[in-house]
Each structure stands twice: as structure tokens, then as C-alpha cells.
Design brief:
single chain; 74 residues; mainly alpha; F1FO ATP Synthase; 3 helices; 0% strand; rod-shaped
Length: 74
């Protein structure tokens, strides 16, 4: 019973990775849209997009870490 709970909890904890994938897509979609509207801000928007990418990716990695902790640490 404990093994089944671990597998279910670990699987549910990985839903954050799907959210991170959607978030990364939204960040770069906004970057492309912003660049097409105002090409002179390309460099500044790129820096902001990379920061957004890093933050979203960090949340995805935290989700993966939590999933692995549920499966193997407890």
C-alpha cells in the first residue's frame, strides 16, 4: 500500500513539469510578439525572456526534485 502511495504521489508531483513546459512556451511567445511589435527593444526583451525562462525552468526542476524525493527518499 505504501509503494502504491509513493508511485501515485510521485506521478502527481510531476505535473509541475507540464506546467513548466507551458510556461516556457508562453514566455517565448510573448518575446516573439514583443519583438515583432517593437524590433528596437529586441536586446532588452531577450534579457527579460531569458530571466523568465530561468524562473519557469526552476519551478519545473523543483517539481522534479519533489517527485524524486517522494519516490526515493521516504
Amino acid at each position: 500500500m505504501l509503494k502504491a502511495g509513493k508511485l501515485i504521489g510521485g506521478g502527481l508531483a510531476t505535473f509541475g513539469l507540464g506546467g513548466a513546459a507551458v510556461g516556457i512556451g508562453l514566455v517565448f511567445a510573448a518575446y516573439i510578439q514583443g519583438t515583432s511589435r517593437n524590433p528596437s527593444l529586441k536586446a532588452e526583451l531577450f534579457n527579460i525572456a531569458i530571466l523568465g525562462f530561468a524562473l519557469v525552468e526552476a519551478l519545473g526542476l523543483f517539481s522534479l526534485k519533489k517527485s524524486l524525493m517522494i519516490l526515493y527518499a521516504f
